[in-house]
Automatic annotation (TrEMBL):
Pfam families registered for this protein in UniProt: Thioredoxin
Gene3D superfamilies given in the database record: Glutaredoxin
Protein name: Thioredoxin
Alphabetically ordered keywords of this record: Disulfide bond, Electron transport, Redox-active center, Transport
Family: Belongs to the thioredoxin family.
Transmembrane residue ranges: none
Limits of the Thioredoxin domain: 1-104
PROSITE patterns (UniProt xref): THIOREDOXIN_2
Protein species of origin: Dorea ammoniilytica
Length: 104
């Protein structure tokens, strides 16, 4: 997963020509730790078709606020540089996979 900050967010997520999944997380968040392996598994499955990124909300509070990541984890998907969907909290792996597939 690519680690994003305010410095590289536009280039790596918004201007990337393909679909992007961004996980907003906090280092102290147990639910984020539960979801990270789910994302890593999906990242392996869609390695060449979808970019997976992460943003630590305390490190990048402005980005977290901009994308409404007041609940962690928050997952923001982008297609063609535009927000496609937002999911918050623990998401069932099957549902998450279905939502990710919609990006393609």
């Amino acid at each position: 997963m690519i680690h994003l900050t305010a410095k590289n967010f536009a280039m790596e997520a918004k201007r990337y020509p393909g679909p992007v999944v961004v996980m907003f997380y906090a280092v102290w968040c147990g639910k984020c730790a539960m979801m990270k392996p789910v994302l890593e598994k999906l990242e392996q499955r869609y390695a060449e078709r979808i970019r997976f990124c992460e943003v630590e909300i305390e490190e990048s509070a402005v980005l977290a606020a901009e994308y409404g990541a007041d609940v962690v984890p928050t997952f923001v998907t982008f297609r063609d540089g535009e927000v496609y969907s937002i999911m918050q909290g623990v998401v069932d792996e099957k549902i998450f996979a279905e939502r990710i597939k919609e990006l393609l």
